Amino acid sequence: MEYVRNPMKLQESIVETIGSTPLVKLKKVISGSTATVAVKLEYFNPGGSIKDRAALAMIDAAENDGLLRPGGTIVEASSGNTGYAIAMLGAVRDYSVVIVCTDKVSHEKIETLKAFGANVVRVPFDAPLNSPEHYLNTAKRIVKESDNAIFANQSFNPANPKAHYLTTGPEIWEQTDRKITTFVCSAGTGGTISGAGKYLKERNGDIEVVLADPVGSIYKTYFETGKIDEAFPYLVEAAGQNEPFIPDAFDRGVVDRVVLVNDEESFLMARRLAREEGIFCGISSGMIVSAAVRVAQEKTKEDLIVAVVPDAGDKYLSRLYSDDWLRQNLPSMESHLTSGDSNAGSADPEAKS
Question: Does 51-155 match 14-44+168-325 at the fold level?
């Protein structure tokens, strides 16, 4: 057989590798459901998370609108993934990047931001929304005091959900050969579920959009009543809302229902995904997949459920994948740690963690 040499294929920059992430069928954690459950592995993005999509869209929009000029500064309030994405893109496009985060953010997240060249500003995690030390207010102040600077402001930036309407939704639609019946996702800013969910529903109005939400977050109450209730602490990171506001990026009208998942169930499922499916993911991924598996119990073999896996587990080594940290911060995990993390779906999803 004659060897045919393929022409050289080069990407102009790391930016061109964002998107087109794989969709993988789950086999071992689906608890006997006959429905198909597949996960959209967003950690295949170069910045390691789904936030690469929104970050690129927000920066592109700022450039196109003339708000961000060469040599400028991008400021964002972020607990991790969006910060990584903006820092990565800032390095490629020669922008300075300032990431404001709370002092509860893990050491590995801070070091990763610095590795991309970002300047990290830490503020008290318990600063109230009306405090000048609150992370949003700190980011706004930095922009005001800087020349040629923008606040990406992911929670209130329309480019955030638009990115998922233009990329994430269409990818899922095509990857499932237009057969998806249920879409399961979390909401931090709400950009992913709102943008991708809107696209999917426009293609097929029967597609169910399910919001997986941590017990303690305010989204479920807001979805059901339209009221902003008081949140209480939870350990799941990069999902839910514990601040007394609803981001503009969240479109309540796209969601069909909300499934609550507690801390224990979320952590257990994330660890199971790594050990049983080879999917090394973060805490919110465990929460989302737990919700998807629960939803799958109601479905038939004709159903195709797609759940988002937003990021990888490397950002959570000192928490999610640390037995010692879990024993100290989530004592209910003890029996699972000593028994190999089995029966991840047994936790009471309505229990306060």
Answer: yes
Amino acid at 326: L
Is the pTM above the cut of 0.70? yes
Residues 252 and 225 sit within 8 Å (Cβ to Cβ) = no
Residues shown for the chain:
353
The fold adopted by the segment(s) 14-44+168-325 is: Rossmann fold (3.40.50)
Boundaries of every domain in the chain: 14-44+168-325, 51-155
Q: Which of 40, 51, 109, 315 is catalytic?
A: 51
Domain 51-155 has CATH 3.40.50.1100: yes
Mean pLDDT in the chain? 92
Residues 6+ apart with CB under 8 A from 171: 19, 20, 21, 40
Task: Label residue 328 exposed, middle or buried (CB < 10 Å: 0-12, 13-18, 19+).
Answer: exposed
Helix, strand, coil % in the chain, rounded to nearest 5: 40, 15, 40
User: Is residue 51 annotated as part of the catalytic site, yes or no?
Assistant: yes
